[in-house]
């Protein structure tokens, strides 16, 4: 029987840090309670199994005891360790990119089961043969949508007119696509090609990452969409995405 002093949750481990003595601080994005910062007592001792179970990018079922200052993990059972994501430098960097953005876009204890599913399904997809770049762009766009920062892709954000083919630009600070007649002051306007707008719309309307069609996206188009999403993520996050830089290095390593 579950008492109110303990609870169970299914979560994705995002990061961990050493805490006082042999304890470990683990940040887990749970389906039931959103992001939690939990203490794992004695997890750094050689005899403890918790350390391995709380390795970042692991899907775990945890039992948690409510504490006065911090809740504590009492048990952790690995559901999926995503070995295909951790196998290799480039895929590991992609996995950590997902973890960093989920962490950055979530507040503590705010549940968002759709965001939880998006993160887990993205890691599952990274372990398959499907295009890793397209998988991450799908994650970027859907993360923005689920966090309330979905860029406008169909009408001009300023005047509301339907966007006509090849007559549009993009302004992160204004909230998305602009017609050529609008130029709000103090926002940086970027060009946006028609193929890039179409690819962003496809990413928006695709229901799950598994339902993405297998597309051969030409590298310049992939770069344009990646940069558009990246500046949008950084704008709302208000800082650089560190693992994005690791990922760029990993690609050329
Ligand atoms: Zn307009």
Outline of the structure:
With 253 residues, this protein is an alpha+beta fold. The protein has 8 helices and 8 strands.
Task: Characterise this structure.
It is a single chain. Helix 3 (89-104) packs antiparallel against helix 8 (242-252). Helices cover 38% and strands 20% of the residues. It folds into 2 domains: 6-81, Nucleic acid-binding proteins (OB fold (Dihydrolipoamide Acetyltransferase, E2P), Beta Barrel), CATH 2.40.50; 84-252, Recombination protein O, C-terminal domain (de novo design (two linked rop proteins)). The model has no long low-confidence stretch (mean pLDDT 92). 34% of the residues are buried. The protein is α+β, with helices and mostly antiparallel strands and 253 residues long. The protein contains 8 helices and 8 strands. The protein has a 5-stranded antiparallel β-sheet with strand order 3-2-1-4-5. The structure holds zinc ion (ZN). Zinc ion binds next to loops.
